Amino acid sequence: MKALVYHGPGQIAWEEKSMPTLQDPGDVIVRINKTTICGTDLAILKGGVATVTPGRIIGHEATGVIAAIGTAVSDFKVGDHVIIPCTSSCGRCDSCRKGLFSSCERGGWQIGNTIDGLQAEYARIPLADSSLHRIPAGMNEEAALMLADIIPTGLEVGVMKAEVGLGDTIAVLGAGPVGLATIMAAQFFSPAETIVVDLDDHRLEKARELGATTTINNRDGQAYDQIMALTHGRGVDVAIEVIGNPATCQLAQDIIGPGGRMANIGIYSKSVELHKEILWTRNITIRMGVVNTNTIPVLLRMIQACKLDPTKLITHHFRLDQIVQAYEVFKNAAREQAIKIVLTNDSTDPPDAAGEDQMIRRIVSQVLARL
Ligand SMILES: [Zn+2]
Ligand SMILES: [Zn+2]
Fold first, then answer.
1. Which CATH class is domain 156-288?
2. What is the model's pTM?
């Protein structure tokens, strides 16, 4: 099979790899139908994620069809159509019992990190029973794909941690794919004002389509003054930081009003300052975390009820074997006006038969070889 392999900073290649095999009774093998590139993949490509070592197949967001199952898998069967979330969970450890799947003692973010990932024709998925989600019949597969990471991240780490509520004035700092997903998810809770700050006019236009009531291009550094003017000097009820840089972290602290809630989604590569000497008088709450993906079932219901359309985040389509080209587009997202790129695996046999047939043929040949 073919897969996208990380070979060290700045180096990726679409190349031949051996078929993944079942290694644990709880594993399944999935024939990938659709996958996408995440900002985290770009961080990996820059060498910024130390746990990803050269030779690793990357990618952690995909949908596909189960091609083989381990002997302990009971809730899924060959042919099932599934979402593969970025987080794997055993469902039994202390963290899982608290719903903290990202801190699972046996799982967490492994796929495309410490084990081979999903930007491939096939992938091995550990802890399948407690990690995978079945895609309801008839659902747009590309909508389901957006639930593998970014929509749950915006909802769980941004909107829910910040407790966005009816009538709130919220500010989302950063309108990349996760920022836009956060804006969509925030609308479930009916904030009165959704202020969005970014440096890219195309992304701000998209933010307005998804529910932003005011967008601010902070090229001139005037966002603080504009937000304070909009809120009559009070500041916002909720500030969600989605970039992970010191300047936006500072802006979130500057604009947060009395009783405000700050949520942090952005991933920082260096330490930032937190001005407790100023913030303590405002009775604010600061929360942060990693996505647990435990909102996927509810988000599937919201798609089915036509109350969420994550396909609005998709701007580009490529065949899976064009993935190196797709990375070039995603790396130049501002120039290319790219938000989410969908890669479709149409290079092999029909999805529901290919994996199973190949798997059966391989198992038969292995058995014959032993005779
Ligand atoms: Zn991701
Ligand atoms: Zn666990």
1. alpha beta
2. 0.91
